[in-house]
Specification:
The protein is α+β, with helices and mostly antiparallel strands. It is built from 6 helices and 18 strands. A hairpin with a 5-residue loop joins strand 4 and strand 5. The protein is globular, with a radius of gyration of 18 Å. The structure holds zinc ion. Zinc ion binds next to helix 1 and helix 5.
């Protein structure tokens, strides 16, 4: 994976450099083609999977424009959290760009349900989230977490929370030829009674914090940061995406507002040395 600076209004885009014509896919909600184990965007038979953690890192450090180049179909998983992407972005440095930042502001309540799971949005002047999960496991059970966006709290409270799974599911997936790289190095793995990772949890409520991370990453596909109060109950990638599609196709539910009245924020893009080659032409983006 290579992260490259991009001009204002470029957005968050992924490029498959291992495929002829280097197809580029813009990370937007309508490009999502699969949400079974992770969020996958695709177009015309080209797919890029597990984008949600790096997308959360972009939102978490207010990156608006970036080109992510990949030489394969999946974003590197690192330790299953967003910590490594954050470190890379911090190391590279970020540059403010001379264009106003835009936000998608929730103006009217919106509710999207799936069985007993739901996501609800109500108007707010910041990005606030309350997430609730309920897993029948002695170390997880019911967990809830409330969070309000700030770069420091993202780094401190959310970015380090790892993805989690159950050993029996990992076995099943590996039997299907999936999750072959899945190990205790890139996920919290539970057996029926406990946790298999020697070091235990990074936070007592690491699972719900990871769901918050996933939500932030999946909602970053709006193409701009959101302002609203979101409540998510037993949700996941599929419902996150359904909710975002519903929001974007309900023009009465939101407004696009300019940053000037909110906080002195400008568009940002990585400031590390620009690679000599030009951006590949955007042939496949919609
Ligand atoms: Zn995740």
């Amino acid at each position: 994976m290579k992260l490259k600076p991009a001009p204002p209004n470029f957005g968050l885009r992924f490029c498959r450099v291992d495929i002829a014509d280097r197809p580029v896919i813009i990370a937007r909600q309508h490009q999502v083609v699969d949400t079974l184990f992770a969020t996958t965007i695709g177009f015309d038979g080209v797919a890029i999977s597990t984008i949600e953690h790096v997308m959360a890192a972009f939102l978490g450090c207010r990156v608006d424009n970036i080109l992510v180049e990949l030489d394969g179909p999946e974003v590197p998983i690192f330790d299953g959290s967003a910590a490594a992407y954050l470190q890379l972005l911090e190391k590279a440095g970020l540059r403010e760009q001379s264009a106003p930042r835009q936000y998608l502001k929730v103006e009217r309540p919106l509710l999207v349900k799936e069985g007993d799971a739901f996501i609800k949005a109500t108007p707010a002047d910041c990005f606030r989230l309350h997430y609730f999960i309920d897993f029948s496991h002695p170390l997880v059970g019911r967990q809830e977490f409330s969070w309000c966006f700030s770069e420091t709290s993202f780094a401190r409270e959310i970015a380090k929370a790892r993805t989690f799974g159950f050993f029996r599911d990992v076995q099943k997936l590996q039997g299907m030829g999936l999750a072959r790289g899945g190990s205790l190095d890139n996920a919290i793995v539970f057996d029926d009674r406990g946790i298999l990772n020697n070091d235990g949890f990074r936070y007592n409520d690491e699972c719900v914090r990871h769901k918050v991370l996933d939500f932030i990453g999946d909602l970053a596909l709006a193409g701009m940061p959101l302002l609203g109060h979101f409540q998510a109950y037993k949700a996941g990638h599929s419902l996150h995406n359904r909710f975002l599609r519903q929001l974007i196709t309900s023009p009465e539910a939101y407004a696009v507002v300019n940053s000037s009245s909110l906080i002195p924020a400008f568009l940002r893009s990585p400031s590390f040395p620009i690679f000599p080659e030009r951006f590949s032409p955007i042939t496949k983006a919609v």
